[in-house]
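We modelled the chain as a single entity of 430 amino acids. Its sequence is:
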Amino acid sequence: MARRSDAEKRLLEKARRYLPGGNGGNLALPTELDFLASRGQGARIFDVSGNEYVDWLMGSGPMILGHAHPAVTEAVIKAVEGGSTFFATNDKAVELAEEMVNAIPCAEQVRFTTSGTDACFNAMRACRAFTGKEKVLKFEGGFHGTSDYALMSLTPQPSVEYPQAQASSGGIPKAIEDLVLIAPYNDLGTTETIIKAHLEDIAAVIVEPVQRVIAPQPGFLQGLRDLTKRYNIPLIFDEVVTSFRLAYGGAQEFYGVTPDICTVGKIMGGGYPLAAVTGRADILSVYDRSASDNDTYVNQIGTLNGNPVACAAGLATLEVMREPATYTKIHGAGAAIRNALVDICQQNGVPVQSCGEDAIFDVYFSEQPISNYRDTLSADSAMMTRFNTGLLERGILKGAQKYYPSAVHSDNDVEKTIQAIQEVVPLIRS
């Protein structure tokens, strides 16, 4: 158990007093293991008490170059010295937009936002304006941020029948459930049946190419692309997680499938609040008042959209990402952990299913192969909690579901993590 200084104990008490649940709404830890992050360096983070953790959470993905990367830090300091924000289009935003168009297969234009939630919400809105239709089809268990539309059927009851949506949060108007259609991921047959039945109402189909950590089955993404083209429905790839991670051109490059619209976030901002909608210029023309009428124009204003400091961090990050061997390092670190985890589980008789790709993955403790949300319900969630807790006790930090390998995870980081896995796996059976 990590040592807690008096200073950190006092701050933790204040967190519980001033923050709902004692946290910011992201990573929630058991009380006995709770800590306050103080700083990060490379693939390690440190709490207020000075305890060190090998970090596989990496800010939930954006820190693919590690914490406090020198090139990113230098770019941010230089940008700040020139001013924090302007509410006017700035040079760094234009440069970053150009780089994104060059990198992302579907990208013809870019509209900046400040978060992945905002990007996905605006992508859906843009498609509704462009098509004049109101409903969006998403896949059960898919996470597209925390807007009312995105939180449909994130964690629904399995008794709900497709394509009925179910709100996965309080405070969402009941009427939203009638505007979202739900299909099972990796199931083209059911998806086409739903599309054909609601063809006159569907403004867009939105999908995570890798849904949380569930990889697409061979042919699924291309089949979805073919379906949406056949029925003239815009296809949105939510690449907030996978953009610049699986490959420089994201999941589109990695899987060889090009959507109409793509949402991008996390890595592109270098750890700063930045995201974007990108894709076909004719669809994104709804953001251009001169090219739209009152029914199609989308009013998308944000004080920090395309913030120059965030764009500078993004440009510096992408420059490093283009260096030779960067992706080899990322995939290599992930493969080492992923393969060792499966082997250790099998050696100890722990049922395990490896999911995702080497650059973003996790396991489910289940006898059943995992191809969609309902398959995940067969996994032993209590075992996963014990596993993650056991790793944290040994100085290894990951999220509830995902490893985020980076370009700076060293052989030592990998070895330390595998050693912790070897110690924890035999202990996680109830």
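As a brief sanity check on the tokenised model: The first helix runs from residue 6 to 18. Residues 6-68+325-427 form a domain with the Aspartate Aminotransferase, domain 1 fold (CATH 3.90.1150.10).
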